[in-house]
């Protein structure tokens, strides 16, 4: 649609029956009062601003004038779209986040649409006067012609005589008609037809004018193609900048956290190694030596798992975890997790690790086998770590609505709701003191989420304090024929 609705190029009679025609006429009639309002407000404010320019407040008033004009332009854009049904592009785009007020003001002042829209608003009054005068003149003439025979009749029947001043033009018309030797009836019919014709022409004219008005609004109240491209480029550049800053910030945070987290196991290793290599008193007994070596082994393992997690975090930050994805037999992965961790859980924490797989075959899932194994190991290690002696941890896989679901549930201490929302954040530990005793760094779940999302899956967590937790990994199932 390129112009006002309902514009018909041919001079048909239907134009008089269309609601759109009268809506267009009313829109044109509204130009004068609205134009007067805009003009009065803006000129008054501008004059006030200029007269106060010697004091700083004048600048503020002038800025306010521009802001009010901008508001009027927005209003006109909405009104024209709604009333004339014209499509008008955006008048502005949201400022890039974080852009300074000064840059925004400068961008606004240097944008062509700012001044074009001001011109549009200011032109409403002078053009409104012209349109109003034309409407009045044409409609007045059309009505006068159409109703003149009736008026003539009323005047001559009611008060016979040619001395009535308003009868004069009618009598003149009548005598002119007589000059053409037309009968009174033919004159009356001719005048009515001329009046109706002029009315139709006026309606068509108003439709054309409204279409022109709509086209002008489209031009003056929206960003041009090149301005739109420029504004989009600015937004994109600002988004890139914000992303780079965020990455920088998270790198700084990571370095600070990592240094902190490394210090604890390293200090512990150093202390135990020192006790072994240069004991202060008598050399440690074989039992103590074994105990120190166990501590060193555990802390070394912690450090190595931190490094693994950090490598995954660095990969995710660099914008791509390198995964080797393909169809994976989930049952087999679950078996491996179970056979690796069940003896450790039983021996070290007296926790039973049970597995549950469907009777029939599971469809293969789209995943990276080794990374999925890493995630499930992590979930089970967490579940075992946060479950008291005698508790149960279960790992279960099933097909669920076109996806493969693997859940790790425990009967452990649970996670309070306010922490549950944040457990997938980096370095987040529900209870730092509690988690520190289990040896976690608060990275495992954030790495798990990065990895699972890179496999186009999702990971969710449910928990109730004192009852237990369930972490569920959802993976895309590959239909048997595609696998
Ligand atoms: P961490 O290495 O500290 O375990 P994670 O990212 O794996 O880090 O977990 C984040 C936090 O979520 C943990 O510190 C712990 O507070 C909580 N959490 C994770 N799994 C469980 C669970 N099964 N039961 C209770 N709390 C858990």
Report on this model:
The strands form 2 sheets. Strands 2-4-5-7-6 form a 5-stranded mixed beta sheet. The protein has a two-stranded antiparallel sheet with strand order 1-3. A hairpin with a 2-residue loop joins strand 4 and strand 5. The protein is 64% helix and 9% strand. It contains 13 helices and 7 strands. The chain folds into 3 domains: 13-223, no CATH class; 262-306, no CATH class; 326-476, Heat Shock Protein 90, CATH 3.30.565. With 483 residues, it is an alpha+beta fold. Mean pLDDT is 85; it is low at 1-9. It has helices spanning 19-51, 57-84, 101-109, 112-158, 167-179, 184-220, 225-277, 286-317, 330-349, 369-385, 417-420, 432-438, 444-454; strands at residues 326-328, 352-356, 365-367, 392-400, 403-410, 458-464, 468-476. The site of adenosine-5'-diphosphate has 21 residues, from helix 10 and helix 13. Adenosine-5'-diphosphate (ADP) binds next to helix 10 and helix 13.
């Amino acid at each position: 649609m390129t112009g006002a609705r309902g514009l018909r190029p041919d001079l048909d009679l239907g134009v008089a029956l269309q609601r759109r025609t009268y809506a267009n006429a009313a829109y044109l009639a509204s130009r004068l009062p609205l134009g007067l309002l805009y003009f009065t407000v803006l000129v008054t404010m501008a004059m006030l601003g200029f007269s106060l320019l010697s004091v700083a407040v004048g600048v503020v008033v002038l800025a306010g004038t521009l802001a009010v004009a901008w508001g009027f332009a927005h209003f006109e854009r909405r009104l024209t779209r709604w009333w004339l049904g014209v499509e008008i592009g955006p008048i502005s785009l949201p400022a890039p986040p974080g852009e300074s007020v000064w840059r925004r003001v400068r961008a606004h002042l240097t944008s062509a649409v700012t001044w074009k829209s001001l011109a549009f608003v200011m032109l409403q009054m002078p053009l409104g006067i012209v349109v109003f005068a034309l409407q009045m003149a044409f409609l007045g003439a059309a009505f006068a012609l159409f109703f003149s025979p009736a008026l003539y009749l009323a005047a001559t029947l009611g008060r016979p005589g040619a001395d009535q001043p308003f009868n004069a033009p009618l009598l003149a018309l009548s005598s002119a008609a007589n000059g053409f030797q037309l009968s009174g009836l033919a004159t009356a019919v001719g005048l009515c037809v001329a009046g109706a014709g002029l009315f139709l022409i006026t309606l068509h004219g108003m439709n054309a004018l409204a279409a022109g008005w709509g086209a002008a609004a489209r031009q003056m109240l929206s960003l041009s193609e090149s301005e739109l491209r420029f504004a989009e480029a600015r937004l994109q550049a600002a988004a890139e900048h914000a992303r780079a800053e965020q990455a920088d910030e998270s790198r700084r945070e990571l370095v600070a956290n990592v240094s902190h987290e490394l210090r604890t196991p390293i200090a512990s290793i150093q202390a135990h190694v020192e006790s072994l290599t240069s004991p202060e008193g008598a050399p440690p007994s074989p039992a103590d030596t074994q105990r120190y070596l166990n501590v060193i082994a555990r802390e070394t393992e912690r450090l190595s798992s931190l490094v693994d997690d950090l490598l995954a975090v660095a990969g995710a930050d660099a914008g791509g975890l390198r995964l080797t994805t393909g169809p994976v037999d989930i049952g087999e992965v679950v078996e491996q997790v179970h056979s690796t961790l069940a003896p450790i859980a039983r021996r070290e924490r007296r926790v039973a690790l049970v597995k549950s797989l469907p009777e029939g075959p599971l469809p293969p899932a789209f995943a990276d086998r080794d990374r999925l194994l890493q995630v499930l190991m992590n979930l089970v290690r967490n579940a075992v770590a946060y479950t008291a002696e005698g508790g149960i941890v279960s790992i279960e896989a099933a097909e669920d609505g076109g996806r493969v679901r693997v859940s790790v549930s425990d009967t452990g201490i649970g996670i309070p709701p306010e922490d549950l929302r944040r457990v997938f954040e980096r370095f987040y530990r529900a209870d730092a003191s509690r988690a520190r005793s289990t040896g976690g760094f608060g990275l495992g779940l954030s790495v798990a989420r990065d990895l699972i999302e890179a496999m186009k899956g999702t990971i969710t967590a449910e928990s109730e304090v004192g009852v237990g937790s369930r972490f569920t990994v959802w993976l895309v199932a590959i239909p048997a024929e595609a696998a």
